[in-house]
Amino acid sequence: MAKKVLVISSSLRGNSNSEILAKQAAKGAEDAGHEVRFISLKDKTLNFCKGCLACQKTMKCVMKDDAAAICEEAGNSDVLIFASPVYYYELCGQLKTLLDRCNPLYPSDYRFRDVYLITASAEDGDEVYQTARNGMQGWVDCFEKARLVRVLSGGGLSGPGDAEKNEEYLKAAYELGKSI
């Protein structure tokens, strides 16, 4: 059965490695017959959550920027794939800001059940992405109907576009999307 898949790339760097892998995952999901929407945060305006919690009653954020539409689309998707560069062993700030701004989804009847995370980092090794994984798991844990299905970590990708030359990571990202 075809699913509605939302892929969100959070890197602001041109020719970003995490975005290259996210696009491969999107291609895999499309090839598997799913409806895929790709959003890059590069040109989006995302303000920080103010913690007013008005959204818990209205299910809408009081701030007017790009976050509201992205979060609404996330809530109407079956599958979420987030892609983030790893800076200092953590999710990038843009993604964390978006996750905080998705607070209106918490009391809503959100559709997503499966969440995936793709990371890219200059340093290699499992310890590099563990804190980022834990950050994403913490967000997912707030949504009792959702689960973090898989984390794909691309280490050793320091220069812009390095992921384009790494067949192993490209294939893994494609297969992640195809397996949805």
Descriptive notes:
This protein has 180 residues and is α/β, with parallel strands linked by helices. It has a single domain (4-178), classed as 3-Layer(aba) Sandwich (Rossmann fold). 36% of the residues lie in helices and 21% in strands. The protein is built from 6 helices and 6 strands; from the N terminus they run E-H-E-H-H-E-E-H-E-H-E-H. The chain has helices at 17-31, 55-58, 67-75, 93-101, 126-141, 167-178, and strands at residues 4-9, 35-40, 79-87, 90-91, 114-120, 147-154. Strands 1, 2, 3, 4, 5 and 6 form a 6-stranded mixed β-sheet that branches. Helix 1 (17-31) links the parallel strand 1 and strand 2 (35-40). Helix 1 packs across helix 6 (167-178). The N and C termini lie close together (10 Å).
Q: Helical amount among residues, as a percent range?
A: 25-40%
Distance between the termini: 10 Å
Query: How many extended strands?
Result: 6
Overall 3D shape: globular
CATH homology superfamily name: Flavodoxin domain
Layout of helices and strands, plus pairs?
Layout: E1 4-9, H1 17-31, E2 35-40, H2 55-58, H3 67-75, E3 79-87, E4 90-91, H4 93-101, E5 114-120, H5 126-141, E6 147-154, H6 167-178
Parallel strand pairs: 1-2, 1-3, 3-5, 5-6
Antiparallel strand pairs: 3-4
